[in-house]
């Protein structure tokens, strides 16, 4: 079945995908590739939120290879959250919650030292009302970050477009790192 990328913002799309493709999948990069950047900005003692965690091994890598002690993972798919809770039930450093990144009202303001996003903003920008939904997402991320917290965005989007979006939504201080060679 072919589905438009506009469905990327819909829970049913992700529930269906994770029901049909339960194996682990890392969007864009694995933890070890991003570890030098993550470690530069995010101390292992900081509480970390990974948005749109899916069934990635990224958070597990943060705990096992990076020594992070408090990694909260959210995803819009109840299917993947239940699978990840079961898979990591013996790892208290990892927590999994079903939640929409556009409404993280279950978290108090300033709850996290870092928010990591590997492709969630990209997915939201593919969907209906993309600009409005992306702005909601970024405002929520801004809200849950501690003062001087870090938002790590891993994207395939054009840097100038992503930078403009970040600058318009919140008072971000932005540092750009390019991984690999891109045309």
TrEMBL record:
Domain Methyltransferase type span(s) in chain numbering: 49-152
Molecular function per GO: S-adenosylmethionine-dependent methyltransferase activity
Keyword Magnesium: no
Keywords attached to this entry: Methyltransferase, Transferase
Keyword Methyltransferase found: yes
Highest taxon listed in the record's lineage: Eukaryota
Cited InterPro entries: Lys/N-term_MeTrsfase_sf, Methyltransf_11, SAM-dependent_MTases_sf
Gene Ontology terms: biological process: methylation
Pfam families for the chain: Methyltransf_11 (PF08241)
PANTHER family linked: METHYLTRANSFERASE TYPE 11 DOMAIN-CONTAINING PROTEIN, SAM-DEPENDENT METHYLTRANSFERASE SUPERFAMILY PROTEIN
Family: Belongs to the methyltransferase superfamily.
Official protein name in the record: Methyltransferase type 11 domain-containing protein
Species of origin: Glycine max (Soybean)
Gene: LOC100788922
């Amino acid at each position: 079945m072919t589905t438009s990328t506009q469905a990327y913002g819909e829970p049913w799309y992700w529930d269906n995908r994770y029901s049909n493709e339960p194996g682990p999948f890392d969007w864009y990069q694995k933890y070890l590739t991003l570890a030098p950047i993550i470690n530069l900005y995010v101390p292992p003692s900081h509480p970390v939120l990974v948005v749109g965690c899916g069934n990635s091994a990224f958070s597990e890598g943060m705990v096992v290879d990076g020594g992070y002690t408090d990694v909260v993972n959210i995803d819009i798919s109840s299917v993947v959250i239940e699978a990840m809770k079961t898979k990591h039930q013996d790892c208290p450093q990892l927590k999994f919650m079903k939640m929409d990144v556009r409404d993280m009202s279950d978290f108090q303001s300033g709850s996290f030292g870092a928010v990591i996003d590997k492709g969630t903003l990209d997915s939201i920008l593919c969907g209906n009302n993309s600009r409005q939904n992306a702005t909601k997402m970024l405002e929520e991320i801004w809200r849950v970050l501690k003062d001087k917290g870090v938002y790590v965005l891993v994207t395939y989007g054009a840097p100038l477009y992503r930078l403009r979006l970040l600058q318009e939504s919140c008072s971000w201080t932005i540092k750009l790192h390019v991984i690999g060679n891109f045309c």
